[in-house]
């Protein structure tokens, strides 16, 4: 298994996906018709279609016809190609380490004025629903973190600190891990406010999920959860590529900043079943050839500056220390604040 240094993940205050899911495993005629109806809405007429090496189909859709714009909150939305402002103090460094494994962030060559959108099939809609049911939400809120089948190894902001976060970034190592049935593993960042029905959560990173994708490929993912309440947008950037943004009205409780942020790993399995590997899949915190890490972790403060974490306001959290570890190295001058994490998984108890 090889390591690559990877991508910088940014979530910055300064919108775009829409996934409504219905239907069960055995579909009634009505459910089936409903899924057909949704597919019609989600899959816009493509200007060009591309099939990637790993078998995904991407449609190039007119940027003004992308499904995200069907959302009622986006009716009169003016698409931004660049953030109106970007936090200061960003060093712009991109990874120089060769990508030694193939991450499914393939270049999809869409014509100007179009955006690549992965085609949605009926099975996807059904799978998303069972995925959500099985895992509910992968929030870092203290009351959901201990749910059975979820295993976190994260560096997170302390709950009692009133600091507001306006962005998060970090370089993360990516590995191609192998997962079993109904398992998902991710290395990611979280940016959240609220809990339960009022949770507003933005998440991004890489993920391997047999349940969601039916394969073992490492993929870049974004996830968001909002309450049903109805400018400054939240941008998502990988290295120097601005992927897109969430308009702030979609996640209203994050306006004015997030109250919780975290970097780290999340391994998910069905309750009381063996859990998947996390990070690099190894348990050697300081073996350079085998570790998974986050480095150069930073947040955006209220003054719109990138800042290193104030160590008194952050802590490490580990759900299942027999299966996973997290090891904070602290500040390493040329790599910023760095920590390693991960583990092989297995029978972790819950
Ligand atoms: C991981 O990637 C390496 C290098 O591309 C490859 O040799 C190996 O077979 C991959 N492993 C899995 C489990 O996909
Ligand atoms: C993932 O890889 C493992 C080991 O090669 C294999 O047993 C499993 O069936 C694969 N899962 C999927 C969904 O392809
Ligand atoms: C770090 O946080 C502590 C406690 O909240 C605070 O007293 C201290 O001033 C902060 N340090 C810096 C450099 O902001």
UniProtKB/TrEMBL annotation:
The keyword Endoplasmic reticulum does not apply. Coiled coil: none annotated. Pfam families: Neprosin (PF03080), Neprosin_AP (PF14365). Gene3D superfamilies: Outer-capsid protein sigma 3, large lobe. Residues 1-23 form the signal peptide. Residues 95-349 form the Neprosin PEP catalytic domain. Keywords: Signal. The keyword DNA damage does not apply. This is Neprosin PEP catalytic domain-containing protein. It comes from Coptis chinensis.
